[in-house]
Design brief:
The complex is a heterodimer of chains A (594) and B (163). Chain A is an alpha/beta fold and 594 residues long. Chain A has four domains: 3-77, Ubiquitin-like (UB roll) (Roll), CATH 3.10.20.740; 103-270, 2-Layer Sandwich (Alpha-Beta Plaits); 281-350 and 493-555 and 579-593, 3-Layer(aba) Sandwich (Rossmann fold); 362-481, Dimethylsulfoxide Reductase, domain 2 (3-Layer(aba) Sandwich), CATH 3.40.228.10. In chain A, the strands form seven sheets. Chain A has a seven-stranded mixed β-sheet with strand order 15-14-25-24-23-16-17. In chain A, helix 8 runs parallel beside helix 18 (585-593) and helix 13 (425-432) packs parallel to helix 15 (460-467). The radius of gyration of chain A is 28 Å and the shape is globular. Chain A starts with a strand and ends with a helix. Chain B is α+β, with helices and mostly antiparallel strands and 163 residues long. Chain B has two domains: 13-71, Arc Repressor Mutant, subunit A (Orthogonal Bundle), CATH 1.10.10; 83-157, 3-Layer(aba) Sandwich (Glutaredoxin), CATH 3.40.30. Chain B is built from seven helices and four strands; from the N terminus they run ααααβααβββα. Chain B has a four-stranded mixed β-sheet, with helices on one face. In chain B, a hairpin with a 2-residue loop joins strand 3 (139-141) and strand 4 (144-146). In chain B, helix 1 packs antiparallel against helix 2 and helix 1 (12-24) runs parallel beside helix 3. Chain B is elongated. Mean pLDDT of chain B is 89; it is low at 1-11. The chains are: A alpha/beta (594), B alpha+beta (163). Chain A binds chain B through residues 155, 159, 165-172, 179-183, 190, 412, and chain B through 48, 51-52, 59, 61-67, 70-72.
Chain lengths: 594, 163
């Protein structure tokens, strides 16, 4: 990278060869208004807000698409520039129906902010008042063409960062419209519902249906937290108002997910209509009845300790979800392992990472030149990984080898696909990387190979050992996916991942929290377990069959830490307080030990 | 201009026809427009399934194929009639009463601009000028210029058309 030097607004500034004028301005903290520009995707120069004056140039030029050259003399502010920018804004406002007072994005709208900044107190052009469609077919997001400024941020993000290529433009000139696939409603399109388009929309054209009209930007609080829906632990921002989480946004400052989230993380964890457990319940005379925390904890302790006294420590079991925080798991172990000495303490979904190979980050995947995806349907279970793989293949030309069932889209991008059932993946991987194989040669040639392996694959180290004969400088790297937010943390705490309630257990405590998936698996065993206590956020069939029920906070109400798939500690931070009768799980369990 | 109309509706014949066109071209993004032109020449319009087939074969997202096809005025997304009716709305024709002519054609055929009759006998479009302003108001019906039209002439022209 050679350094170049420019004069911007009479000041000497430095840049690097290959920078655009806008990039040099950003490096030097010189403000240039932008609308279509979005970091991480290619520049299109459609909005014309970033026009600047280059000495010797024929006309004003867009800073975002003009390469900076050594010795260039640039002005970012002048009467001519101001006048053109304002005219551009007026054209944008007159072309569609931008009525801020009715718009969900008002107060958090880049178009509105630019209009204020440029003193746009009137529009000299006649309003066109076009009749525009509103697409509300999608369950989570809506498209209002009335607010669209045709910046194509959503189109570029959908194609370049997400790899879905669902969005495009149709028609031409003033008739141009944002469209999904062949003009289908969003719900019928190939949209993967990741919501990235909504997050990057500078206006209110694409908006979140759940949070729409429930509070302006200034009315809301934003808390940085981590998503517990899978072991990636993506960085999120929780936007809340009046004790309710309105939406989940990706944290654009995160070098890992960089603002991208999956359907599950952004939408599904908030959009369920599930009944909460709001106070402790104790079975009295055959019926579950409300109880105080003291009563419930006393009943829990009595049930568990009676079983331990009668049948020994082995008659007592505690099973957590590996979605529980490290703190909650430690408190659980404190009571059941340390105090009661029970051998039956586990966490469903706990999974250790394969030893001996450096963990691959999502950034590593994006920069890889060879990706081996084995044994995981990344599209369904770890969409954000799928996005990173797509980006590596489509934007940087990485080679992709798929073993087992990956998302259909990734299969199409792969140079080698080895079909394998979930129990055959390890063997297929071993064959693939057997001595002298074509793929092994490929791996040996790769400078930055990344293995992405799904939870059911245990024989990875073996396959890797074959690959690693050519390892260099910390490559190949491995991203071993895991099913739960804190799968690694639970494994590090020594908890067994395949936990089930052993035969002979007379009393069990199941700490499900907001993991509703795990409770149903204990239904067939309910009758064998004499005393059953459940800690859960939501009502479910097993909750109704328990002897003691402790209400649990959901993840947006919790503080704590988790260890993600790459072994990095990520933090949960509460965006809202739990409902009145719900207490922090770690505190409750710590109280049991006393 | 006579257009060969394929039997559509079943989907399968057009799939093999599109396949034959795709086989003639390299599976590259740059071949998109020539392929779309040939598909339209063959089928008379661009059915959605054909665009999906082209997208799949070229590895170009469907949204892009649709974006390109809708960008150019030459591509159509509805089946074309065996006889095309182009009503001129150029200046001379407009002054000569083109709006009335157009209204009469719509009334006679029971269709709007860009549409085809259910039996696909006629399709209707308006054009900016057909280059014979001395004959205004005029239209081109099945390749033949109909000059100095009046609503009465239009009625006679489409006499017996099943609506």
């Amino acid at each position: 990278m050679s350094e170049i030097s420019l004069t911007i607004n009479g000041k000497q500034v430095k840049g690097e060869r290959g920078d655009t004028i806008l990039k040099v301005c950003e490096r030097s903290d010189i403000y240039v208004p932008t609308l279509c520009h979005y970091g991480g995707v290619h520049e299109v120069g459609t909005c014309r807000m970033c026009v600047v004056e280059v000495q010797g140039g024929r006309a004003l030029t867009t800073a975002c698409t003009t390469p900076a050259e050594d010795g260039m003399i640039v002005k970012t502010e002048s009467d001519a520039i101001q006048s053109l920018r304002r005219a551009t804004l007026e054209l944008l406002f007159s072309e569609r129906n931008h009525y801020c007072m009715f718009c969900e994005a008002s107060g958090d709208c880049e178009l509105q902010a630019l209009a204020y900044r440029h003193g746009m107190d009137s529009v000299r052009y006649p309003n066109l008042y076009p009749k525009m469609e509103l697409d509300t077919s999608h369950p989570y997001l809506a498209l209002d063409q009335n607010r669209c400024v045709l910046c194509r941020r959503c189109v570029r993000v959908c194609a370049e960062l997400v790899g879905a290529h669902s969005l495009g433009m149709r028609e031409r000139g003033i008739e141009t419209l944002l469209a999904a696939d062949g003009g289908e409603p969003l719900s019928a399109s190939s949209c993967v519902s990741c919501g990235a388009c909504v997050q990057v929309c500078p206006t209110g054209a694409l908006f979140d249906r759940r949070s729409a009209y429930r509070g302006r930007e200034k009315d809301c609080t934003t808390v940085k937290s981590s998503c517990p829906e899978c072991a990636l632990g993506c960085a999120v921002e929780l936007v809340a108002r009046s004790g309710q989480v309105l939406r989940v946004e990706g944290d654009v400052e995160s070098p890992e997910n960089g603002g991208l989230l999956c359907r599950r993380g952004r939408y599904e964890s908030l959009n369920g209509h599930r009944e909460r457990v709001l106070q402790p319940l104790v079975r009295k005379g055959g019926e579950l009845a409300s109880a105080s925390w003291d009563e419930a904890l006393a009943a829990l302790r009595a049930g568990i300790e009676a079983a331990a006294a009668a049948g020994g420590a082995g008659a007592v079991a505690a099973v957590a979800s590996a979605r529980a925080s490290n703190e909650a798991l430690a408190a659980l172990r404190g009571y059941f392992q340390q105090k009661l000495d029970s051998p039956n303490v586990g966490a469903i979904g706990a999974a250790a990472s394969p030893d001996g190979y450096p963990a691959a980050t999502l950034q590593d995947i994006r920069q890889a030149d060879l990706i081996i995806l084995a044994g995981e349907d990344a599209g369904a279970n770890h969409q954000v990984v799928e996005f990173a793989v797509s980006q590596a293949v489509e934007q940087h030309g990485a080679a992709l080898i798929v073993v087992g069932s990956a998302a259909r889209r990734l299969q199409k991008q792969a140079c080698v696909v080895v079909p394998a059932g979930s129990d055959e993946v390890a063997r297929a991987l071993a064959t693939l990387t057997a001595a002298g194989s074509e793929s092994l040669k490929r791996i040996a040639c790769a400078e930055r190979a990344v293995f992405v392996v799904g939870a059911p694959v245990t024989a990875v180290p073996q396959a890797l050992a074959a690959a690693a004969q050519s390892a260099r400088d910390g490559w190949p790297r491995v991203l071993a996916l895991a099913p739960k937010g804190n799968s690694r943390g639970a494994a590090q705490a020594g908890l067994n991942g395949g936990a089930s309630v052993a035969k002979g257990v007379k009393a069990a405590f199941i700490m499900a929290g907001d993991d509703t998936e795990m409770l149903d698996r204990f239904l067939p065993q309910r009758d064998e377990i004499g005393f059953l206590a459940v800690q859960a956020s939501y009502r479910s069939p097993l909750v109704e069959m328990a002897d003691v029920v402790l209400p649990a906070p959901v993840w947006t109400e919790k503080a704590g830490t988790m260890v993600n798939a790459q072994g990095r500690e990520v933090s949960l931070r509460p965006a809202v307080a739990p409902p009145a009768g719900v207490r922090d799980e770690a505190d409750v369990l710590a109280a049991l030990s006393q | 201009m006579a257009v060969e109309i394929a039997a559509t509706g079943s989907g399968a014949p057009s799939e093999s026809q599109v396949g034959a066109i795709l086989a003639k071209h390299p599976a590259e993004r740059s071949a998109l427009i020539p392929i779309l032109q040939e598909v339209q020449a063959k089928l008379g319009y661009l059915p959605e399934e054909a665009m999906c087939q082209v997208a799949e074969a070229l590895g170009v997202p469907e949204a892009n194929v649709y974006g390109v096809a809708s960008f150019y005025a030459q591509f159509r997304f509805a089946p074309i009639g065996r006889k095309q009716v182009h009503v001129c709305r150029g200046t001379a024709c407009h002054v000569g009463g083109a709006p009335k002519i157009l209204a009469e054609v719509k009334e006679r055929l029971g269709i709007g601009e860009g549409e085809s009759t259910p039996d696909r006998e006629y399709s209707l479009e308006t054009v900016a000028c057909i280059g014979c302003c001395a004959l205004a108001p005029c239209a081109v019906v099945d390749g033949k210029v109909e000059a100095k039209l009046t609503p009465k002439k239009v009625r006679e022209l489409f006499q017996g058309v099943q609506r």
